[in-house]
Design goal:
The complex is a heterodimer of chains A (492) and B (161). Chain A has 492 residues and is of the alpha+beta class. Chain A has helices at 3-6, 19-22, 24-29, 32-43, 47-71, 109-114, 141-154, 181-190, 194-211, 218-224, 229-237, 240-266, 306-310, 338-347, 363-386, 391-411, 449-453, 479-491; strands at 73-76, 80-85, 91-96, 102-107, 116-122, 135-140, 177-178, 270-274, 277-282, 287-293, 297-304, 314-320, 330-336, 359-360, 413-416, 420-425, 430-436, 440-448, 457-463, 472-477. In chain A, 45% of the residues lie in helices and 24% in strands. In chain A, a hairpin with a 4-residue loop joins strand 16 and strand 17 (430-436). The longest helix of chain A has 27 residues, at 240-266. Chain A is globular. The two termini of chain B are 17 Å apart. Classes of the chains: A alpha+beta (492), B alpha+beta (161).
Chain lengths: 492, 161
């Protein structure tokens, strides 16, 4: 802006030469087609051709990496970062520091061996341009930290206080929230993936004969226990052992994958409160170091699942203008007691629960769901009488659906206090959202012929950040309540 | 800030918007209607269902072309005060949106071919929200649309100063 900008540093910086190594991972990921083709050729006894394909691919990708490294240049200027890249399509990107919401430092396994890091600038640009956000793939770790501190101090609005950028001494100050290995392992237990179990079950049932893995077949267990006499006889004698064993194997695999994924991601989880926001570090192989500026935090989400809730555990997320990879909101506590979650929320000087009482949803909301299940139930009863008694199962299912619907309705509630809106919903997966009123961008009251018949409207709130999936809405409230609530929200 | 409630005096949009909607849905329904006629002639001509499918499609098309636009137009309204824009729209699916000017990121006035044909314009207000971040108000007179845009812009500028 001033004379300093007129004389920017003349020379740009390159990425670290080891980018040729760290970049390979991404190349391999993108090359599964080539790998599959090569594998196919190798199986077809055309080894020479497969080697040629591989060789050509490796050569080409290394060359393209090298060219990318040669043509990539970044320059740290007075109030902006300039990135120039491309050989044929030369592009020059300027990122003003004022627009940088987060500077994330990430270290993959190879980065860590050589003391390198990847710097990601979150600019809050639209999701379409996400991939192309400012990213410096491989630079020295010290340089990455320098750049982050530089950007933080240069950003207007942020007061460069001396404590803002002393990463070394921060470890002495107790973390706001940290997870030891036991807690991480516990989080992994809760993270078992039903989807993985279901997928494995499907695979073993359809292709088990081909790949030789079907824990539900007796042959599988006979092979394993072939050497042990009594166990083998037991398996032979009892049909159910295979089913039981298969179930156990699948559950172990499901829990195991969840455990591995969680430990890889959350190992050494540590959340610090900095004067301007939060700083989160985690990861076993890939270390990430993410800052979440307080000014950018839009909403708080406290969620829990059916089993977690029984043990009093919660997950706390902050919805910020920037997104946390593909996750949308930033997880600031993967597994926390309600006291720990409350402490994090209070450090933002935002409340976790409303001072005034909760309001429940109108009964019509339950009725609107029950009407559908009741109608279907009558049809199923008719089918049971006329066609087949098997339709009684459908009746039972609809009964359960009604019960779940009722529980969901009973557990949903909302509240508005002086500055915050609280929305809680869900019985199976409970989720409480706390949105400061000043962060609500727009208000929608929606109704249709169906909800009108049951006398309620849906109120949806436009809140910045997050993903399209995480909507903030009060599912049902009476027209009069909705209008009163809207007037209170608008008046604030 | 005065606790002025949500403005309730909804103003209608241009009457020409009705015909614009009619023409749009007529063009939209032409394709299923032709499809139904072809299906009827080629496949169902000799069965008991002859003539049934086009009849059903024509029934819905009539509703969408003749009855729908009038109702949609009647229920489409907007209100402005010094702080916020309110857009109420929808017949079967009714949406009532309130956007404080303070939250507006940018504003478009668009005119598509139908708008030009019937002398209307569409005001599009963008907020920072991830959900319902785009609020559209169709069927405005072009002058009115630009006037609203300018007043919102003035509000935004006053806010940032």
């Amino acid at each position: 802006m001033t004379d300093a900008a007129l004389a920017p540093p003349a020379r740009g910086e390159r990425l670290h030469p080891l980018y040729l190594v760290t970049g390979l991972g991404k190349v391999v990921k993108g090359a599964w087609g080539v790998l599959a083709g090569g594998a196919y050729l190798a199986v077809q006894d055309k080894l020479g051709l497969a080697l040629l394909l591989f060789g050509g691919f490796v050569l080409l990708s290394t060359a393209s990496l090298f060219i990318r490294w040669l043509t990539f240049e970044f320059r740290l200027e007075d109030d902006q970062l300039r990135i120039e890249q491309g050989l044929l399509n030369r592009s020059s990107r300027t990122i003003p520091f004022d627009r940088v919401t987060d500077v994330d430092i990430e270290q993959g396994p190879i980065h860590r061996i050589f003391g390198l890091a990847r710097v990601k600038m979150e600019t809050g640009a639209s999701a379409a341009a996400k991939e192309a956000d400012g990213q410096l793939d491989t630079i020295r770790l010290e340089r990455a930290q320098e750049i982050r501190d530089y950007i933080r101090t240069r950003r207007s609005g942020a007061t460069p206080s001396p404590t803002a950028s002393i990463p070394e001494t921060e470890n002495i100050v107790p973390a706001l929230f940290a997870m030891d290995s036991r807690r991480v392992a516990l989080a992994g237990m809760f993270n078992f993936s039903l989807a993985v179990i279901a997928a494995l079950f499907g695979v073993s049932q359809t292709m088990g004969d081909v790949i030789g893995f079907d824990p539900f077949s007796r042959g599988f267990w006979l092979e394993i226990f072939a050497s042990t006499g009594p166990l083998r006889d037991y398996v032979l004698a009892h049909q159910f052992v295979a089913a039981l064993g298969g179930t156990i194997v699948l559950v172990v695999i499901g829990v195991g994958t969840g455990m591995v994924r969680t430990v890889l991601r959350e190992h050494g989880f540590r959340l610090d409160r900095t004067p301007t926001g939060f700083r989160r570090r985690r990861g076993l192989l890939t270390l990430t170091d993410v800052t979440i500026p307080e000014r950018r935090i839009q909403a708080t989400i406290l969620a829990t699942g059916p089993i977690k809730r029984a043990f009093g555990w919660h997950i706390l997320k902050l919805q910020s203008l920037a997104t946390d990879g593909k996750q949308g909101s930033h997880v600031v506590a993967p597994l926390a007691t309600s006291e720990e979650a409350q402490e994090i929320q209070l450090s933002l000087s935002r409340p976790m629960a409303p001072a005034e009482g909760w309001r429940s949803l109108p009964f019509g909301h339950f009725m609107s769901g029950a009407a559908i299940t009741l109608g279907a139930g009558i049809m199923a009863l008719a089918a049971a009488a006329l066609l087949s008694p098997l339709a009684l199962f459908a009746v039972a299912g609809l009964g359960i659906a009604t019960l779940v619907n009722w529980l969901e309705w009973r557990r949903s509630r909302y509240a508005l206090d002086a500055e915050h809106l609280f929305i809680e919903q869900g019985w199976w997966r409970q989720r409480r959202a706390i949105v400061p009123v000043c962060r609500i961008q727009s208000l929608d009251l929606t109704e249709n012929f169906w909800t009108r018949a049951f006398g309620f409207v849906r109120m949806q709130f436009g809140v910045a950040g997050g993903t399209m999936l995480s909507a903030f809405a009060i599912e049902a409230l009476s027209r009069a309540d909705a209008e009163a609530l809207r007037e209170r929200l608008v008046a604030q | 800030m005065t606790p002025a409630a949500v403005p309730a005096d909804l103003q209608p949009v241009e009457p020409g918007y009705r015909y614009s909607l009619m023409l749009q849905s007529a063009i939209f329904w032409l394709i299923p209607l032709i499809g139904a006629l072809v299906l009827d002639r080629l496949v169902l001509a000799d069965t008991w269902a002859a003539g049934l499918v086009p009849l059903i499609v024509a029934f819905f098309a009539f509703g969408a072309v003749v009855i729908g636009p009038v109702r949609i137009y009647r229920r489409l309204g907007y209100a402005l005060d010094s702080r916020l824009l309110r857009v109420v729209r929808g017949w079967l699916f009714h949406v009532d949106t309130v956007v404080p000017f303070v939250r507006v990121q940018h504003i478009d006035v668009t005119r598509g071919p139908f708008d030009k044909l019937f002398g209307t314009a569409t005001l599009v207000v963008h907020t920072a929200g991830t959900h319902n971040s785009v609020v559209t108000l169709p069927g405005l007179a072009p002058d009115r649309a630009t006037a609203i845009r300018d007043s919102i812009r003035a509000e935004i500028r006053a806010d940032s100063e």
